[in-house]
Each structure stands twice: as C-alpha cells, then as structure tokens.
C-alpha cells in the first residue's frame, strides 16, 4: 500500500473543509511544504507557534495542520530572522509541511462548531447562521441541551469538558436560572449577538466577549423583559470561555476524519495537548 503524498492529504483536507467556504478575509490552505513528499505523521494543533513546531519536529511529523493561520496578513519576507519566518524555516528544513483550516473548518459538518456543540451537550441542532446553499454548513450551532439544567450547572459542565485555561469560564446571568436551549460559536463570537437573540436561546457559549457588546446584550435583555432591575434573570445568558479552549475539541474530529479517508494504516495522526492560550495566570480580587 503506497504512502500518501502531501498533495493526497491536502485533497482530503480540502474535501472536508473546502477553501471556498472560508471567509473572504481568511488565509487558509497549504502554507509550506512540497506536495510530492510522502506523509506518514500528521500533528494537529490550534496555533502554529514555536512550541507546536518543537512538538512536531520531536515527533518526526511530516505535516502540521493548525486551525489558526500563520500569515493572516500579507508579508514581504519569511526570513528566519522573524518569529514567523523562523517557524517556516524550521518546518521546511525538517521536511515538514504546514496546512491551515480556519473559518472553513469553523462552519463544516464535524467542524469546530459541531465539536463544541457535542462537548457541551447540544442536540437537535442546526447552524446558528446557515449558508444559503448548504443547510448543514454555517457559523455556530443552535439547539436544545440534552437535559434542562441551571445556568450555574451548565457553566460548570462547560468548564469541566473544555481544556483548562487560566481564564476559566466567565458567566453573565443568574446562576440558578433554568436553561434548556443554547447556541455555541467557537472562537470570537460577540459579532453574532443579533443571531443569538433571534434564535431565542437561553444561553450562548463563545469566546473573547468584550465589555461593551456583552454589557449591551445583557442590558437589552433586561429591558425587553420588562424589568431592567432583573437583568440577571433575562436571556440570553452568556458563558465566555478561552478562545483556544473553544476550538481545541475540533482537532480530534479532524484527526479521525483525515485518517478515515486515507489508505488504512498509512498515516498516523496526533492531537497536540499543548495549551497555546496566551494567558498564563489569573489573579482575582481575593488573591491580591
């Protein structure tokens, strides 16, 4: 049985996560590597950072697949004198390629959104913002929880199933309030508040929530409920997790789907467990 080439692996990845479904501002696809080289080991990670490169090269990987792009903006040099250029040089010197699946993986079936939805227990679901030509593909997911619970219990469940980070999980709302429906978006999600409100869910799980959008969403919820003083009991509630943590669950899906579509036993995949979230500590008021 012949070993697949990098071109073969890329073809599978682009069938799973078509580049045409990425956002217009995104930079996805093959970043570095010779399509003719054979691929036996593939490391999957969220971020193309130096520590991930160390892991890949120590393991002898032939390809690194990351969610986040290495180059999201145009560059004029990839000299090894820059930190991003160094990543490229180290990979190529070792004969290891780099491939990125970003917003095209966010929206795909069994992509970032579905992986997060499965982990938090979201069933009977659909895209939060569907693509016009594909009812299974779109931004985020919305549906009902496997069993009704309270906001506090749900947030603790989310904290327990996602990778541990310094941030942990932040919550906006009454912890004792009942929740039965939810929306999830991996990565930064406060630009989708209008869609979340339209979906009329009890709770929204996403990352990178900023002060003003979150405050306005909660204030509006209280106002429209008829009692601004009871805003903590108005929906949608918010569960804010670390960006890295919200996207890491997808890696296992990508690894499984990649190997299932390649000749059996020819490629070994590995999901990096390195926490590449940039925040390293959180100090609360009681810790001062």
From TrEMBL:
Enumerate the UniProt keywords alphabetically.
Hydrolase, Metal-binding
Q: Which Gene3D superfamilies match?
A: NIF3 (NGG1p interacting factor 3)-like (3.40.1390.30)
Which InterPro entries would you find in this protein's record? DUF34/NIF3 (IPR002678), DUF34/NIF3_sf (IPR036069)
- Keyword Glycoprotein assigned to the entry: answer is no
Q: Which GO terms describe its cellular component?
A: cytoplasm
- Positions binding a divalent metal cation in this chain are 67-68, 106, 243, 247
> Which Pfam families did the record assign?
DUF34_NIF3
The terms under GO molecular function for this entry are:
hydrolase activity; metal ion binding
* Source domain of life: Bacteria
The UniProt similarity line reads: Belongs to the GTP cyclohydrolase I type 2/NIF3 family.
| Quaternary assembly | Homohexamer.
Q: Which NCBIfam families match?
A: YbgI_SA1388
- The entry's protein name is GTP cyclohydrolase 1 type 2 homolog
